[in-house]
Amino acid sequence: MGYGVTGNSAVKPYTTTGSMTSGGASIPFGTGGVSSNTPGAKADVMPNVNLGWEKTASTNIGLDFGVLNNRISGSLEYYISKISDLLMDRSVSSVIGYVSLQDNVGKTQNKWIEIALSTVNVQTRNFTFRTDFTFSLNREKIVELSDGNLEDRSKS
């Protein structure tokens, strides 16, 4: 049995404070009457000072067994992970000069079960016949996105 919480901070550097990129800004009516670049810097990403770590809380319960001198053995395992503060790009109004913002936007859940069974059907000094069976099932679902929605409504 086990329980733990891990964090994921897999975002580009300066995502919380906003990064700048060198290069010119395009301005109309520059040299020759068409747009041209001017030297300088411009904001590369929209800053998000509230951006936090994505957190995964995991619980794992397992049971290993063996009977008849381990001629029949196996394991049962159940795992559930709940991810909160999911790191994702969220759509924002392009009027502010950006089309997306890296944000903590939701929650997901992952459940997994595995059953393994092993039998020693025939065992002699020079020969062993063994059967192994494994079954697993995994289900992942979105629990919540930004503002409690189950879908990204900003893209519709």
Spell out the blueprint of helices and strands.
Elements: E1 2-8, E2 20-22, E3 25-27, E4 36-38, E5 41-43, E6 54-67, E7 72-84, E8 87-91, E9 100-104, E10 107-123, E11 128-144
Antiparallel strand pairs: 1-6, 2-5, 3-4, 6-7, 7-10, 8-9, 10-11
What keyword list fits this structure?
0% helix, mainly beta, elongated, 156 residues, single chain, two-stranded antiparallel ribbon, 5-stranded antiparallel beta sheet
Describe it:
This protein is mostly beta strands. It contains no helices and eleven strands. It starts with a strand and ends in a 12-residue tail after the last strand.
Structural class by sheet pairing and helices: mainly beta
Please count the helical segments: 0
- Helix-strand pattern, N to C? EEEEEEEEEEE
Whole-number average pLDDT? 82
The percentage of residues in β strands lies in over 45%
| N-to-C span | 43 Å
Oligomer: single chain
Helix content: under 10%
Low-pLDDT stretches: none
